[in-house]
User: Fold this.
Amino acid sequence: MELHELTNIWNASDNKMESTVKINKSLLMEVSINRIKTELSPIRWTSFFEIIVSFLFLFFMIKFTFSQLSEIKFLIPGLLLVIFSCYSIIFSLKKLYLLSGVKAETPVLLTQKKLKKLKLMEIREKQMLYIFIPLFSPVFLIVGAKAFFNLDLYQFINWLIAQTAASILIAAIIVYVLKKFPDKNLDRTLSFLHEIAETEKE
Amino acid sequence: MKDSSKLGQQFLELLENNKKLVFKIANVYGKNDEEIKDLVQEITLQLWKSFPGFNPEFAVSTWMYRIALNVSISFYRKEKSRKKLHQNFEQEAHIFYWEEQTFDEKSKQLYHFIGQLKAFEKALIVLYLEGKKNAEIADIMGISATNVSTKLNRIKTKLSNNFKANKH
Assistant:
């Protein structure tokens, strides 16, 4: 089959479409675009919510850390959680920045690359949380008990050691499971990013 | 600020003049009737959403192709989201409707073979078949014109081979 034949076939159906494809105008006029959220929506409100919550948590942690400057056993967990919330804020801001650049009317490869990078970030964030939550649970417990109940969990050192050992074990199991059974979405996203890179290559 | 009904009227006119573009891209990316309907719907909505920000200094076709292709390539939706889309838009499920005889056998075959290509290959060949010059395709896609030319040659060979193989 020659190229002009492909074009001829394409044009033949094109001519027919003029009369066979119709738009339901009255229905279209009723459509409210605000009722739908597509993947190409410029703003994702959950990102703003995430940032606000992370900032509130950061302020709380800074306040707590400053109040424990003389007590190193609370100062270190406090600092760890300050770092944790800073990381979370930077991550969310980066996501929001990337999201603000996603526009349906920008060149196709650019938009798709941004969308897939965003997807990749979301998957990685989810995986990090799976690991961080158990790993940081003793730290959260120490800070939470002190901040809300003025309770020193170091009094129950054996329980705390057991708790820490269990959380490390759980985090290790999660890492193993994530490696053994990779996320299909992650694979798809990575392979699509590879396809984008291939298309960009001359 | 533009009057909303006037804007709606302008959009309707634009869509009427370019309905074939939306329909063809949806047919290339959609795997079945349901997906094609969803895609037509989603492209239309995204066009409508972006319409107030459209800069008339730029070519309408470039703007429309970019949106239609971006929506179609992103159409890797989860079943759940698609069901939600149907629930939200049950009454608007047929913004576009078309007659059975829109495609003859050869056209169906061509769309079928294009459908088997990779996401960006589909976009490139559709733009080529639509008669776009390499520079314009490059602008829509965001790659260089030389790259467009190289890629198109490979895709055209692939398509021709598929047709030949199908004949034998």
